[in-house]
Amino acid sequence: MKMKRTASGIVFDGFNYSLMVLIAFLTLYPFWHLLVQSVLPYEEAIKSNFYLIPRKVTFEAYQYVFTNFQFFRSLVISVGVTVLGILYQLLITCMAAYSLTKKNLPGRNFLLFFIVFTMFFGGGLIPYYLLIKNLNLVGSLWVMVLPFAVNTFYLIIVKTSFSSLPVELEEAAFIDGAGYYRCFFRIVLPLSIPMLSTIGLFIAVGQWNNWFTPMLFLNERQDWPLALLLRDILVVNNTDFVRNGGMQPQRQLLSNSIKAAVAIVSILPIVAVYPFIQKYFVKGVMIGAVKS
Amino acid sequence: MKEQSAMKLAWKNRALYVLLAPAIVFYVVFCYIPMYGITIAFKDFMLSKGVLASPWVGFDHFQTLFALDKFWSVFYNTFYINLLKIVWGFPAPLILALLLNEVRRMVFKRTVQTIIYLPYFISWVTIAGIVTAFLSVEDGLVNKIILSFGGEKVNFLMRSDLFRPLLVVTSIWKEAGWGTIIYFAAISSVPPELYEAAKIDGANRWKQMLHVTLPWIAPTISILLILNFGSMMTGGFDQVFNLYNLAVYETGDVIDTYMYRTGLVEGKFSLAAAVGLLLNIINFILLVTVDRISKKINGTGIY
């Protein structure tokens, strides 16, 4: 259905496309800037730290970062709490969501109220802090995983999605003698993989970016995940980490390059994974938005 | 008899309870026990004694709080910053979605979408790091641009009059793109016949956007707007905490950051818990109100 293009339409399109390119540029430029900064050789960086495209490139900052023991430790911790967090939260959330979709769950209405009420009212930061202290989770890496069993918002999305699956499949399985567990693991979960990967991504991002929990409860630097180490380097501006970068003047690295390299490494996993899941999450968010 | 059958039904469906149990344990431990912990707002809490054994003091902490200028100032800041974010930030994703919807080249459209969703997934820590670098007085890009136009350097991060605009701009940069998703969902449900009819009436694309798309998604807009008002007194901790400093406390300190410092840095647990309880009550009222309004307008509540 090609339409005849009018003059005003062409002007509008021209304006619109330029604006979109500008917005995309403004969104990407900060990341690009970080990337350039992280590979800029010292002799270029002291002249100016702004290059749209650097003339020379060095990976010394990354070499420094990846051979730094603290960084490596933090990276491993971040990967660990992210993977564990996904499995743990996804499993508990899905089990609960499945159970809550069943109309013959006695006390279902009360249980739903019990859960949704926490979205309206909560203890707040201080009682939460005292609770974690009393549970002896301070200083333990488990504090990064255990308290994140369920996110009520995700629970509702998952529940809505489960209840939109065709009931016939499960009914047929019940007739064949399958119980709830079998239905859950063999039918409901496999059918929900697109939705689960979306929720999984959100959980992963939350775990990966979590700096607040370790800031409150993990006092030893050696227990810090990458997000908190990054905060220490970028925001608190603690120079411990970058100071050793410039021991030899001729091989000197600017602390800025090291900072940028750490930031890039912390962003990279998100950037790498999310375009693949994007097509799912648009759908997932819609389900959550339309029905809840 | 009836009770017995209910028990029987429960026993027959015990697998469902087993599946639900871990989540219930989670809610009891991590949501409901802290709710009980709020009682320390009415106690003189001492770490050595614990929540139960600390002596009651009634409304003392609230009286202290209400007499503090600082408390009212963070209260005002929270409200004002959120209001600014709604005024400037709320239209951003709407306009972006409407304009991007007019893009007919699908590859271009999808590429732009992928790009603008990205910042949503980046933590405020990283963004604060980038912002600090860009606004740096010594070698920040923004100041270089200002200098090249003959202006004078501005120490953006230390200027209390610029802190709120900084929060608004950075939150638009981070969240406007993501905010378009919900509008795209709404726009995609517009019946094509409406556009056909508009075209026959001689409406150009601009007019179609104004008179077809916009009215169709108006309910979505109104829901999102009232939802925004529902979180009027919360949020922004990550953003403010990673960007602020002593020089901008006056305009930038919000309830959440104040509560954190009072309780966990200064160790005034009870006072901070009192702040938390007040915040909770306000939010509760806001959410219930918003839910009611939404029911009136759209026939369904939000939750």
Helical percentage of chain A? over 70%
Q: Quote the average pLDDT of chain B.
A: 90
Shape of chain A: globular
Q: If helices are DSSP runs of H or I spanning 4 or more residues, what is the number of helices of chain B?
A: 16
Rounded to the nearest angstrom, the radius of gyration of chain B is 25 Å
Structural class of chain B: mainly alpha
The count of DSSP E runs of length 2 or more, i.e. the number of strands of chain A, is: 0
What's the level 1 CATH class of the largest domain in chain B?
A: Mainly Alpha
Please give the count of helices of chain A.
14
The appropriate CATH architecture of the largest domain in chain B is Orthogonal Bundle
Q: Which H/E pattern describes the elements of chain A?
A: HHHHHHHHHHHHHH
The class by helix and strand makeup of chain A works out as: mainly alpha
Show the helix and strand layout.
The complex is a heterodimer of chains A (292) and B (303).
Chain A: H1 7-39, H2 42-45, H3 60-66, H4 69-101, H5 108-120, H6 125-134, H7 152-163, H8 167-175, H9 180-191, H10 193-209, H11 212-217, H12 226-234, H13 240-243, H14 255-291
Chain B: H1 2-12, H2 14-37, H3 50-53, H4 60-67, H5 69-89, H6 91-101, H7 106-117, H8 124-135, H9 141-148, H10 160-187, H11 192-200, H12 205-230, H13 237-243, H14 249-252, H15 255-265, H16 269-298
Helix pairs in contact in B: 4-16, 5-10, 6-10, 7-10, 8-13, 10-12, 11-12, 12-16, 15-16
